[in-house]
Design goal:
The chain is globular, with a radius of gyration of 19 Å. The chain has a seven-stranded mixed beta sheet, sandwiched between helices. By secondary structure, the protein is of the alpha/beta class. The protein is built from eight helices and seven strands; from the N terminus they run ααβαββαβαβαααββ. The chain has one domain: Vaccinia Virus protein VP39 (Rossmann fold). The structure holds S-adenosylmethionine. The site of S-adenosylmethionine has 21 residues, from strand 1, helix 3 and strand 2.
């Protein structure tokens, strides 16, 4: 479960950085774990004094929305959740009920809160592969600004056998197994060499995104097989967060 995933990566020490979650008597394991915050500080530092709109999918009790509000005093913050609590977080924070994969809702949110497009989108909602992918389909090309940032949290749920769409590895992960292909002939003669890889749930989505990030090379080699792709300038993978930087052009 994402909750147990988060509990297992939570660290309890006090933070000294500029992103701070609201203080609670006991840490809520559903809220962003502390190790995610320095990653966001690195990614979002250039936006601290900027006027922009951040959309977060997955509100829970509103802790992360409060954190974004306090860290970015000129930003508009929009949160979407299947069942958000009744939150009053001030005039810059808008909390909506809805499904993260609802393309029509995303279109309306962009129209109302981010006419120039969202600068930052954070998917911290279902952590399921299909819905994660559908949010990307609904948001990335149409509603994320050029040069904007799209982050997917807890994509490692696909490695959890007890997560709804997670699963067990087909084979152990090890350095020794890194060159393991299904081909037994000498590499020079073998031709295409499939490299087995875990591709379940959100983990599978993240690995598919590599194909989009490599679309320039794909177009050189197999242009007939490249459809409309996500314009990814760079893709950074942490254990817990994937950040996609949208191409500027
Ligand atoms: C991990 S919590 C969000 C935590 C919050 N971002 C924070 O850091 O404080 C995930 C939230 O996503 C919501 N959620 C799950 N599936 C969803 C979906 N398909 N669409 C919208 N929200 C969803 C759940 O109701 C839950 O409140």
């Amino acid at each position: 479960m994402a909750i147990s995933l988060r509990r297992s990566i939570e660290r309890r020490e006090e933070r000294t950085g500029w992103l701070r979650l609201p203080k609670r008597e006991t840490a809520d394991p559903v809220v962003k774990p502390a190790p995610y915050l320095p990653i966001y500080e690195q990614l979002l530092a250039p936006l601290r004094d900027q006027s922009f709109t951040l959309l977060e999918l997955g509100v829970w009790g509103g802790d992360s929305l409060q954190m974004w509000r306090d860290a970015f005093p000129r930003a508009t913050i929009v949160g979407v959740d299947l069942g958000p609590p009744d939150l009053q977080l001030g005039p810059r924070v808008h909390v909506l009920r809805g499904d993260q994969s609802d393309a029509e809702l995303m279109r309306r949110l962009r129209e109302e809160y981010a006419p120039a497009g969202f600068e930052v989108i954070i998917d911290d909602a279902s952590h399921l592969g299909v819905t994660t992918a559908r949010s990307l389909q609904a948001l990335y090309s149409e509603h994320l600004r050029p040069g904007g940032l799209y982050c997917i949290e807890d994509w490692g749920t696909g490695y959890l056998p007890d997560w709804h769409d997670g699963g067990r590895l087909g084979e152990p992960v090890s350095i020794a197994g890194l060159d393991g292909t299904t081909v037994s002939a000498p590499v020079e003669q073998a031709g295409p060499a499939p490299m087995p890889s875990h591709d379940v749930g959100a983990v599978g989505v993240v690995k598919r995104l590599v194909d989009h990030a490599a679309s320039g090379t794909l177009r050189l080699g197999q242009p007939d097989l490249v459809g409309e792709v996500l314009a990814i300038e760079s893709m950074t993978v942490w254990d817990g967060i994937v950040a996609l930087r949208k191409s500027h052009a």
